[in-house]
Write a structure and sequence with these properties.
The chain has about 290 residues and is mainly α. The protein has 11 helices and 2 strands; from the N terminus they run ααββααααααααα. The chain has a domain of about 120 residues. The two termini are about 30 Å apart.
Length: about 290
Amino acid sequence: MFGYVKAFKPELKMCEYDTYKAVYCSLCRQLGKDYGPFSKMILSYDFTFLALVKLGLQDECVGYTKMRCPFNPLVKCNRIKNESEQMRFTAACAVILFYHKLLDNIKDNGFFGSIKYRVIYPIFALARNKAKRLYPEIDADVTSMMQQQESLERQSCSNLDEAAEPTAVLLSKIFSFGEKDEITKRVLERLGYTSGKWIYLMDALDDLDSDLKSKNYNPIAVKFGLKSGDNTKDAKEHTKQLINMCDAETASAFELLSLKRYQTIIGNIIYLGMPDVLKNIDHRRKKHERSL
């Protein structure tokens, strides 16, 4: 997960923003508590979204309290007061996903290019082993996803839906993990699937120009036969349409969820935050094209 799924803060009420920030800060604290201080560097808004969905389905509210932030001891922040299995699960997913992404970066960047990744590898190998003991099914699912993704890249897959499938299926399993109610489980599977596909396509769109320059695999480039210096406007417009469709399908799944809390915050993320991220990426692209 890449940090694309985040709230549109200007439209959040003050109390909603405080709650959103509290879950974000609580996840940071959970990562540090379970996996050490270095694990806090992998915190992202995507995992905050996962935590909000998981917490929002629980009957009991976790409760909040004010605690000092270790990065800014002069400031007190709202944090989740009680131990939460949902936060523990989210932190473990973050560690497992980052570890496998770290392996992928080491493999793809050669000896000298991967030195920075090799330096932190031992730290996250230990963290991943702990997370794997807690949630072996998730680690197995992520391993399978990475293998499928690697296979598709070796084949230079040009089908955007097929290229996004491993990530979509993985997020489907993560969002629905541990859910006992069959209807809710199916809705969570759909929510995870469509948001996972959205994340993959968004990342491919965001990285298209840099991938063309570095000649790295990008499914959009392969589909449209692009190379560095080519006009990418049509390819990007096509991908944006697919991304908007994924967002609409995520919204449809969200409307079927019986959330106990955080409904307006999660709705803000899906209806406003995700389209705003696409808008910002498109704005950067047009600004870059005008500068050429």
